[in-house]
């Protein structure tokens, strides 16, 4: 193992000298593995370069990814990535050198990028004179970062300052402004901050501290304020909380009985899913014993207290030590998944279920992580993720999150000095691309283990309908209409769909939520052509498992049944749930009569009991069988055992959006069948 400690030494001419301790690797750029890119996705389409690492030749405005890096020559460079239409992967251009503020003022920090109020990109760096400078993207031009600007005021500088780390600048959006934080180049280094709109920034404000590491600054979405974390000269992780737009509390040691930490690696912080008492932030640090430590907020309040808005739990270890034996990979002799170096090695992120993850580059030049599937779940790892196709990793990782589903992606600089991507592999495929209505379709998927939950599900939608609540059919990954355990990272389900002719999407959605992360499509032909009421009764018979029953011969007034169901769906749509249950019971009573008329007496009588439960619950205020839960998403539970609103919503969507009465009937029939089976099993349990 080798240790690299980066220092800024300000000579009399205030030029920065990089001092490191090496054991031979990366001789061309000894600080390579201290570098970290700033990676940001454009908010407005712009004209990018050609992304084939060759000529710059594109005139079409598209969305793009901008990757910035500082070079060993003290300049800032930009590579632009666009999505390849064939491979659907990001392809990055050659590096374009954006220079430095002047020939005597060189870039010495890693860059930090954010958006302006005008949705353009600003990128900030600290330079050899100790000051912060920035470039701003010209609208509609990806690579036009022309003029260097300095932030107002002068940060104090000590000529003999030694600072560990290159992540000294942080920029983020806050309340419509850009907030910039920087660590001063002083022997007793302080944290400073300012805010600005467009190119108008406030003077620097001193936030104090005697920082031994760079600082991490995060936004707390519950309090609406920012929080700063750093290891100070006392060797402890300290926090500093913003409590008003221009007021911060004093630096305070984070948590009780804090373990010894590596005092060259800044703590990492990331928002977790909100706790029941509004705790939002989790902090990670590299322990002196080689283990990753973490601590999290247990409560947050809207009223500021002497200890800030939030209270904290206790420090603990994440998963195993970073010294467990791991098999050699890629032909490298490697005994342990240890981070390569001890400076700012941890990078946080999260998965689609909002479980936090911590990433680091190992000694083998590959990416590793520890992770939890959900907040408060167990921690897993360290697990090897891999390396980019472009080669070995030669920098610290930058973790980004997909804006729709939350999938993470890691951007790195490779030993070939290109932008490398370590992305999660996910796939959703179908057994056929075109199917006859009523035939079977097998849906297969493969998602990473850290992204798979038992409540993930497959939804069917009209192509072009972006509202994920408008599903027409669905299966949880275990194959049914209610979720089970365990998760199924790789699997398949088979479903028969009785949809009208048209194009449909199948989407992989996460954790019983309406958030899709993978989509594919299928064409359906040969859809039902019968009258609406005939389709409805045929569908209900299929859902009940009586597909061969010619139930339409036993129906007196089918059109009236259609109207009754439509009235029930409208009540549910208006969130009149008890009225909806009553009307559903009235509509199902027609099905009872038809089943008895067709001599399906056993199932008819079982359904009659279910209808009686529905009507008693909705009208007689005697509800022992149904529970309506409206806390987050609507759920209606039968006998505390089976959730029925998933199929109710699917049936309603089929009626309302497509006039797909046969598919809607299938949803009605199968939920009735499931509830009858639940009731039967409960009765048997009581008898025995």
Automatic annotation (TrEMBL):
<keyword id="KW-0732">Signal</keyword>
<protein>
    <submittedName>
        <fullName>Uncharacterized protein LOC109478486</fullName>
    </submittedName>
</protein>
<dbReference type="Pfam" id="PF26607">
    <property type="entry name" value="DUF8189"/>
</dbReference>
<feature type="signal peptide">
    <location>
        <begin position="1"/>
        <end position="27"/>
    </location>
</feature>
<dbReference type="InterPro" id="IPR058502">
    <property type="entry name" value="PLL-like_beta-prop"/>
</dbReference>
<feature type="domain" description="PLL-like beta propeller">
    <location>
        <begin position="91"/>
        <end position="322"/>
    </location>
</feature>
């Amino acid at each position: 193992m080798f240790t690299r400690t980066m220092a800024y030494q300000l000579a009399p001419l205030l030029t920065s000298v990089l001092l490191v301790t090496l054991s031979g690797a990366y001789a061309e750029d000894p600080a390579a593995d201290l570098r970290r890119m700033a990676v940001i996705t454009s908010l407005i389409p712009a004209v990018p370069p050609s992304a084939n690492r060759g000529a710059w030749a594109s005139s079409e405005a598209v969305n793009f990814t901008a990757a910035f890096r500082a070079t060993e020559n003290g300049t800032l460079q930009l590579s632009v990535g666009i999505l390849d239409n064939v491979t659907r992967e990001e392809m990055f251009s050659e590096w374009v050198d954006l220079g430095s503020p002047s020939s005597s003022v060189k870039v010495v920090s890693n860059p930090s990028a954010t958006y302006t109020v005008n949705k353009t990109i600003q990128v900030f760096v600290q330079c050899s004179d100790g000051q912060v400078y920035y470039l701003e993207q010209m609208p509609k031009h990806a690579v036009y970062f022309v003029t260097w600007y300095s932030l107002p005021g002068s940060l104090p500088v000590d000529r003999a300052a030694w600072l560990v780390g290159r992540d000294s600048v942080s920029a983020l959006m806050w309340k419509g402004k850009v907030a910039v934080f920087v660590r001063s180049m002083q022997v007793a280094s302080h944290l400073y901050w300012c805010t600005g709109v467009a190119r108008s920034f406030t003077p620097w404000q001193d936030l104090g501290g005697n920082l031994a590491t760079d600082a991490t600054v995060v936004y707390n979405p519950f309090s609406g304020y920012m929080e700063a974390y750093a290891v100070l000269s006392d060797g402890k992780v300290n926090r500093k909380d913003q409590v008003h737009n221009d007021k911060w509390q004093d630096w305070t040691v984070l948590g009780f009985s804090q373990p010894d930490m590596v005092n060259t690696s800044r703590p990492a912080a990331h928002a977790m899913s909100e706790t029941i008492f509004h705790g939002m932030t989790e902090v990670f640090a590299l322990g002196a014993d080689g283990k990753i430590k973490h601590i999290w907020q247990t409560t947050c309040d809207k009223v500021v207290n002497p200890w800030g808005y939030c209270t904290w739990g206790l420090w603990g270890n994440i998963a195993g030590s970073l010294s467990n034996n791991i098999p050699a990979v890629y032909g490298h002799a490697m005994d342990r998944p240890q981070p390569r170096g001890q400076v700012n090695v941890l990078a946080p992120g999260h998965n689609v279920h909002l479980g936090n993850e911590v990433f680091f580059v190992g000694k083998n030049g590959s990416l590793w992580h520890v992770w939890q599937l959900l907040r408060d779940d167990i921690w897993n790892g360290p697990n090897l993720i891999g390396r980019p196709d472009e080669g070995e990793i030669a920098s610290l990782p930058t973790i980004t999150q997909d804006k729709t589903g939350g999938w993470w992606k890691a951007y790195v600089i490779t030993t070939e000095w290109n932008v490398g991507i370590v992305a999660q592999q996910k796939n959703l495929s179908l057994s056929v691309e075109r199917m006859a209505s009523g035939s079977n379709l097998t849906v297969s998927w493969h998602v990473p283990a850290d992204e798979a939950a038992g409540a993930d599900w497959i939804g069917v939608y009209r192509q072009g309908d972006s509202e994920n609540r408008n599903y027409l059919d669905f299966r949880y990954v275990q194959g049914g209409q209610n979720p089970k355990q365990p998760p199924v990272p790789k699997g398949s389900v088979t479903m028969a769909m009785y949809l009208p002719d048209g194009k449909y999407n199948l989407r992989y959605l996460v954790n019983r939520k309406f958030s899709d992360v993978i989509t594919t499509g299928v064409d359906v032909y040969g859809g039902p052509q019968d009258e609406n009421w005939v389709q409805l009764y045929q569908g209900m018979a299929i859902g009940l498992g009586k597909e061969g029953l010619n139930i339409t011969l036993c129906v007196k007034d089918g059109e009236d049944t259609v109207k009754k169901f439509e009235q029930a769906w409208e009540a549910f749509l208006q969130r009149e749930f008890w009225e909806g249950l009553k009307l559903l019971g009235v509509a199902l009573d027609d099905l009872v009569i038809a089943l008895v008329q067709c001599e399906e007496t056993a199932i008819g009588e079982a359904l009659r009991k279910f209808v009686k439960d529905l009507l008693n619950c909705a009208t007689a205020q005697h509800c022992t069988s149904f529970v309506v839960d409206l806390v987050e998403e609507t759920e209606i539970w039968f006998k505390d055992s089976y959730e029925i609103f998933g199929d109710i919503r699917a049936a309603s969507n089929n009626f309302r959006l497509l006039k797909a009465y046969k598919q809607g009937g299938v949803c009605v029939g199968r939920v009735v069948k499931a509830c009858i089976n639940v009731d039967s099993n409960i009765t048997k349990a009581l008898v025995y």
